[in-house]
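Thread: quick sanity check before group meeting

JM: Hey all, I'm pulling together slides for Thursday and realized we never actually wrote out the predicted structure for the chain we discussed last week. Dropping the sequence here so it's in one place. If anyone has concerns about the input, flag it before I start.
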Amino acid sequence: MTGILFDASRLVFRLARGRALTGIDRVALAYARWLLTRADVELKPVWCVEGRLLPVAMGLLRWMVEAKPREAAAAAQTWAGLVAALASAQGDGRALRAGPGGRADPGWLLEGLRHVWPPPLRARVSAGDIYLNVSHYGVGQGGLLARLTRRGIRPVVMLHDLIPILQPEFCTPGGSAKHVVRMEAVLEHAALVIANSASTAEEVAAFAVGAGRAPPSLCVAPLGLEPAFLSVPEPLKSTQPYFVCVATLEPRKNLAFLLMLWSRLAARAGEAAPRLVLVGRRGWENEAVIDLLERAPAVRRLVHEVCDLTDEQLASLMAGAAALLAPSFTEGFDLPAVEALAMGAPVIASDIPVHRELAGGAVLIDPLDGPGWLAAIAAATARASEPRRPRIAPTWERHFAIVGEALGLGPASVVSAPASDAPLPGRRAQRRAASHRRR
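JM (edit): ok, ran it. Output follows.
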């Protein structure tokens, strides 16, 4: 039986927020589901507070995995407004604006806290356990990984990207320094690094070499998709073609550029210009984007802004779109682009390494090539009614087959009990990462 200290910090924060999952939250939830099904794992959920691990009650973890978010009613209201707006020939984008969002829901929080009693007193830690963190959070705090290593616990960390280090201009002030501390802790103490893409693995290895260190043991495991995106749902109906962009409103997503394109489309096509649906919360340093959303006449008329849709609603929205647009300057994985392609929806994306790796079949264009994007959007508009063919999608089953092997676990269908002090297969993981890079 392998003891795994699973860091559920992101799920605990989700409990406090009471809102739909995004990005890394989804990965943490998928890992919690997977670990709860493993008969060969002694699961010890924890969360990190200032570099210290506190236990999470198993009942609370199960509730967070199984519970339907309380925001479902609000999502239904938002969805109804979006459906009505896209069905109207005179729809006004101002009717749907996401706003800051993300406010805590005391009722949701109290409902979850019912599962904590009686509160656990301390995390059960044993030499030979694996500490598994797939969220970045807490990795660089208070010498956490160093203390775990001294106690004979093997840290395993998923790295989603190195954007704060490589492109600090796209992140919050101070984000780069925090990520450097995080990376130094990982390079010094992690027994294994899980990378969500070969592009991320290459960046991790290059950072290590640049820091004068040996690259860590790497396991490349592309993320899986949720069930809603593994089949083609009933597409959302619209009176005229529309496009979708799923992204937090933050600098690296290149949304000001996208909205300027929509102003140009409106000038060219007038009332016949396609609509644009932005799906995502308002993030940081987004003043230019918000100014366009709230003050540019064409954008106010043609662009709808929503957030916290359910998976099923988002899948339906993507299925009916002329194309999903992903103009970001940099990404570690870009889940929405992969989701859309899996359902057969056209994708127009920026020509960056991760899109070249994972978005096969997408139209790739330089993220600042305005004429190229306008031409691609016009072509997708003309083909909006053409039939779509779903593609082979990455699955969580495949992801966890790779990760389970790297952790020394047996196949999911077999109860196995590897020695708790068995070394992680570093060389094999490195060879696997190298083979992915060669591809």
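AS: nice. Residues 246 and 279 are 5 Å apart (CA to CA). Residues 413-439 have pLDDT under 50 and may be disordered.
JM: adding both to the slides.
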